[in-house]
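Reproducibility note. Readers wishing to regenerate the assembly model reported in the main text can use the exact inputs given here. Chain order matters: entities are listed in the order in which they were concatenated for prediction.
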Amino acid sequence: MNIIKPTLILDEAKCKANIVFMANKAKKHNVVLRPHFKTHQSLDIGRWFKDVGITKITVSSLDMAEYFAEEWNDITVAFPVNILEIETINRLAKKITLNVLVESVATAQYLMKHLNHSVNFLIKLNIGNGRTGLLPNHTETINAILEATKQSSKLHFIGFLGHAGQTYNCRSKAEIQKVHDEAKTTIVSVKNKYKIQYPKLIASYGDTPSCSVAENFEGLDELRPGNFVFYDVMQVQIGDCTHNDIAVAMACPIVSIHKDRNELVIYGGGIHFSKDRIEHQGKTIFGIIAQNDTNGWNDPIPNMYVKALSQEHGVVVVPPTLIDQYNIGDLIYVLPIHSCMTADLMKRYKTLDGNDITMMLNH
Amino acid sequence: MNIIKPTLILDEAKCKANIVFMANKAKKHNVVLRPHFKTHQSLDIGRWFKDVGITKITVSSLDMAEYFAEEWNDITVAFPVNILEIETINRLAKKITLNVLVESVATAQYLMKHLNHSVNFLIKLNIGNGRTGLLPNHTETINAILEATKQSSKLHFIGFLGHAGQTYNCRSKAEIQKVHDEAKTTIVSVKNKYKIQYPKLIASYGDTPSCSVAENFEGLDELRPGNFVFYDVMQVQIGDCTHNDIAVAMACPIVSIHKDRNELVIYGGGIHFSKDRIEHQGKTIFGIIAQNDTNGWNDPIPNMYVKALSQEHGVVVVPPTLIDQYNIGDLIYVLPIHSCMTADLMKRYKTLDGNDITMMLNH
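Running the prediction on these inputs yields the following C-alpha cells for the assembly.
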C-alpha cells in the first residue's frame, strides 16, 4: 500500500468477526439485530451484515436513510423526527419500510397531516440517558400520542425505543451490567403496560456497551448497537472490548521529531480524528499508538499516545527508550478514541489488502 | 431561505469587515498580510481577500495548496513538510511560488534530493507553542540546515516562521499582549542573528489573538492569522473579539423539547460542529445560542448554550423563562466554539442572502 497521508485503515477480518459476534449473540437470545449504521456509513460494509442474515437497519439521519435505501428496505431513523424534512420522509416512505421516532403530540400531528405514505413510529423513551425521549412516567404524553394516532391511516405505532447511552460512563463489565439491568427493566415494563392494547408492539434497545456485555435480553425484541462494528479506545475504557477488537486505525506520517521532549508530530489532526478525547491515567488523550506489524498494526505501545490535536497536527508522546527508532516519513498507527466520528470525517477506508471501501459522502 | 437541516450561515458583511480590519492593520504596521486560509477553505471567500489587495496566502496542507493554486500563486504551507507527498510538492512547485517549513536536516536533504523545481523554505521556530519547530537555542540544527541547503539550486532559505499558539491559553487582551511581546521578541532576535548572512530573510508570524490585539509588529515581515475571518466563541473567551464579530452561525432545527428539564434537542451534533469545547462559568459548553433576528442572528441569549453533542444531537440548555417560546421545527442559531473545525465539517456556507459559498471538499 502506498500511504502518503492520514488514511483510515480497516482490518476486514476484525470487523467481520465483530459483526459475527453480535449477530450470533442476537440469534442466541432470539432478538432481532437491527445494527446502527451511523458508525460505518458504508454500503460496502453493510453487505457484510447481509452475509450474516441481517435485513433491518438503524441510521441516525434521513440523509443516511436515503443513502442506505439503495440496498435496504426496512430502516429505523433513531433520531427524533425533524419535521422540516417532511419531503425526504415522504420520498423514503414511498420506497421502503420507514420507522421514525416520535416523542411529542406536536410531531405526531404534523406527520399525520403531511404524510403521503405509511410510516411506522416508535415512541422514544428516556431510559436513563437523559438526551431525548419521554420518561416512563410521562404516561400522559405517551397516552396522548397513542390517542392522537390511533385512527391514523398513515402513522402506525409499533413500539418503544430506548438507548441506554449512560453505559458510556461505565468503566467495567460489572458497571455496564448494572446499567443494562436497570435500563432493560425500564423499557420492558413500559412495553408490558401497553402490550394488551398493542399486542404486536416491540421494545427496541441497544448501545454497544450493553449489547456487547449483557447476557439477558428477555422482554426485548431488537438490538441496535452500532459502534461494535469497529469498536475504539473509548469502548476499551468503558470495558466492553479489548484493543485487539478495534478494527480501524489511522495510518499517519511522521513530519517532525522532538527528541528533546520525546515527542513526534504526525500529519493527522482534528479534521481527521475529530476532537473526542478520554481521560487516561490522569491525562487527556486523543488516541493511542499501536505497534506496526508486517501487515497493519498490532498491540498498543505502552505509554505512547496522542496528547494534542490541532487542525492537521497530532502531537504524540513517545517513551524515551523508543524515540530513536522513528524517522521523518515513517507511518505510525493511531487507534481512534471514537471510531464513529473518525470514520465520518475520513469518508473512506482502505483495507489491509489495499482495497477501497466507500462511504456516504454528504450529510 | 428554506433551511431544513443544520446549515452554516455566513454573515458576509461581518466577514468582510473582519478582512478589512486585518488588512488595514497590516498596512498600518507595514507588514505583509499572508492570511491563513485553513479556516474558510473557500476560493469564493478568498476573492474577498483579493479585493483588499492580498496576494499571498497560507494553508495547512498540500491538498489545500493544490485547491487554492487555482487562483493564488504564492502559497506557504504552514505545516512541517510531509516528505511522502513529494509528488504533490513538485506538482505545486512547477506552478506557483511554494514556501514550505523545514525543521530538520533529514527533511532538507530529502527535498534537495527529490525536488524537480524551486521551492522556498522557512525554518519553523518554536516560539512558545511547543507543538512543532526548533527552539531559538537549537542553533546547531538551524546552522546545519542552513549549511546543508546553502548550495542547493532547488531549496531556498527565505526566513523563519513562528506561531504563538500559546495565546489560545490567554483570557484577556493584557495576557495576549504579554505573550505576543515575548513571542515576537523571540522570533525577531533569531531573525536579527542571521540577517547579516541572509539580508533578505523574513520573520513570518501570526495567530489570530495576537494579530487582533497587538499594536507592535516591529521586526516582523508578515502576519498569518486565519481564524479572524470568522472568529468564534473560543476567540471571544480568549479576549480578542466580541460576539458581534463572529461571522458564522449554525442554523439548527429543534427536534425535541423537554420542558421538565428546560432543554431542547437540536439536529446538529459532533459531525456538524466538531467536539471542540470550552469551560465557561464552570461548565463545559459546545456552543452558545444567539437570538434569531429578522435576517439571521443577533446577540447571544444569556445562559443558553449547547451542553452536550453526540453524533447528530445537540442538547441545549434554555433559561426557564424562555422554554415556552420554542416549538418543534423552529430554527435556532448556534455560535460555534471553533469555526475552523465547524467549517471544515460543513463543507459549504449559505449567506444571509441565501447565496451558496463553496469550499474545498476533500482533504
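We highlight two features of this model. The mean pLDDT of chain B is 97. DSSP finds eleven helices and 19 strands in chain B.
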